[in-house]
Amino acid sequence: MGGGIGGLATAIGLRAAGWQVGVYERSDTLPATGTGLGIWPSALRALDEIGVGAAVRAAGLPQRNGAIRRPDGSRIVTLDMDQVREKHGEPVHLVSRPALLGVLSSALPGGVLSFGSPVGDITALRRDHDVVVAADGIGSRIRTALFGDRHGLRYAGATVWRGTADLDVATGGETWGVGARFGITPQGPGRTNWYAVLTAPEGYRPALDDADELRRVFGGWHDPIPAVLDRYATSQVIRHDLHHVAPALPSYTVGNVALLGDAAHAMTPDLGQGACQAIIDGVTLARCLSGGEVAAGLRAYDRERRRPTQRLAATSLLVNRMSQARRFLALRDGVLRLALSLGPPA
């Protein structure tokens, strides 16, 4: 398993269930930088199950109410975190990726997590271990080895910039334009996460440099978007195309191998559920294997997790398509209001 969010959550859960565990991470260290993640109540309950929920809450802050707006600042719909709190007992918590990984890794004893240890061929691992957990991310080599290129990554039609700016923002949310979207999420005092999404051909490279391209598209949008872009030079920005796995996998297990997180169901980030579902996958897998019956436990894991995560992935892709709309924007806004009135996937 990899040393990302899903792999570490699985390792914690399996150790608590009495398993001997090794985590093989291809990177040389945990990341020191990264944007914020929204950890929803269902994922927080899963973290409670493996004993780290309180530490994750302490590492972040509750998400405030926000809104989805148009470029002129007019409101399309309110993002009501009070509704989440009332329904589930607590709100979404915003936690930076490095902070979350730090909490998870610190819950494991020394020697469990091995850095600089990529896994290219799982044949030996499958032979020498009772269970192999494939948590090797969106470009999973293990998924390809087991299922081939048919169940591979598909371009979602957009490219994204993500960064963290030194700026205080009272509330977050998204702004939807025509084939373009901008999101802002407060991370803490003086720090704000942001992302910019453009509908574009795969591998798109603008004629302008990235900062000027973003100012060209978003510079005239409502405050505080221009202020965020003014800090581009000091932001820690990453950029990548958006992909998802399609068609959906027929199973999350093959023999003694279990796939989880992005390796199993990489989805577009439009519901903010990628990290949450990886956590729930890992904790569920550990619970299913707690009885020691590997075959039965893997079947139970696949039965419990495959359909819910694939429904979320399909819904996320639908929202992605809506956000890229260039026509019928009034209809788009109405559908969005209806969808959010039914409640978020907490």
TrEMBL record:
It comes from Catellatospora methionotrophica. This is FAD-dependent oxidoreductase. Signal peptide: none annotated. InterPro entries: FAD-bd, FAD-dep_Monooxygenase_BioMet, FAD/NAD-bd_sf. GO terms for molecular function: FAD binding; monooxygenase activity. Keywords: Monooxygenase, Oxidoreductase. PANTHER family: MONOOXYGENASE, PUTATIVE (AFU_ORTHOLOGUE AFUA_6G14510)-RELATED. Residues 2-103, 132-313 form the FAD-binding domain.
